[in-house]
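Before relying on records like the one below, remember that each one covers exactly one chain. Contacts with other chains, cofactors or solvent are not represented anywhere in the record.
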Amino acid sequence: MLSALAEGSSRITGFLEGEDTRATARIFGQMGVRIEAPADGERVVHGAGLHGLRTPDGALDCGNSGTAIRLLCGVLAGQAFDSTLTGDWSLSKRPMRRVTEPLASMGASIETAEGGTPPLRVHGRQPLRGIDYTSPIVSAQVKSAVLLAGLYADGKTRVIEPRPTRDYTERMLAAFGWPIAFEPGKTSLSGGHVLRAIDIEIPADFSSAAFLIVAATLVPGSELVLRNVGMNQRRTGLLHVLQAMGADILEENRCEAGGEPVADLVVRHAHLCGVEVPVEHVADMIDEFPALFIAAACAEGVTTIRGAGELRVKESDRIAVMATGLRVLGVRIEETPDGATIEGGALRGGTVDARGDHRVAMAFAVAGAMTTGGIMIRDCANVATSFPGFVERANGCGLAVRAA
């Protein structure tokens, strides 16, 4: 997104060839940004500048990406044209007022469907003003949408969070040369500056690595090395929780890539014990909870999760879907409004439904390695949303996953 709004051409290496990222690239292509793909995992983005996007011909389809649709609200609110953001059946159920309401207080005009869901109709040519926004929810997407609108606003935009969330947007804005001040839980910037193109090296995705980390931890005799994994402290809450449960995970060769800390992770099989997940880690592992549910189901004792109500408005209600599937596998689990209590033990085989949620599907694929009869996973075609090649990569590490 930022390279499309920058002056000059940016080269991106380590580009995730997932459906979400490709959808975002197509959207900017519809708005006149020239994007080249010289090789798999590479993009060259010829930026249009902050005010160089053109009116799209038709709706902008975000597919399954909540990140794309919410952040694009901030970008499109500052444009000189109207636009419509749509998504697939799952995205069309997700709440958007958490973004449209703070943007409206900046002067944006965005219409939602009844119930505050997509499609979103963004009316351009609206003068935006900076605001002081204290977010009532813990969401990096909300923070980022407000900050991106702040690029187009008069005055200063400040965002205060109830708990710190991932800071990729802040780091990347700074890398593109936009003056920004940020610390955990607080960010501020002013409009009226310019983004300058840069070359970007994207670290390996921790959320994708999470499934293989849990698999190697659970399967006896395992030893797995994951190279150049992004280790942003606002993203690695799962690592701290697994280590508290007894996981054997070592960090080696720490360095920086693309302005982000990275490391190689060496994961060996370990006996896990249930824990009470610290609430302060929840925001730093919000996408990794399906993997944690599997780790907790295989651990000795009870794992308690609280403060994770955001899981109920992801691609699926991840608390409910994971609980339903784990019960099929013989796990005792009690749902709460913002979490669950999971009693670990042996898993039996069975058929579970991923409900179209890519992370749920991959989590149950890992669980299959811990059963004697295996697991059949239904409604899992969209794994490529975030992890294209998951089946091949998982099988290459020693799991036995196949398409039915």
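The domain at 206-396 is CATH 3.65.10.10 (UDP-n-acetylglucosamine1-carboxyvinyl-transferase; Chain).
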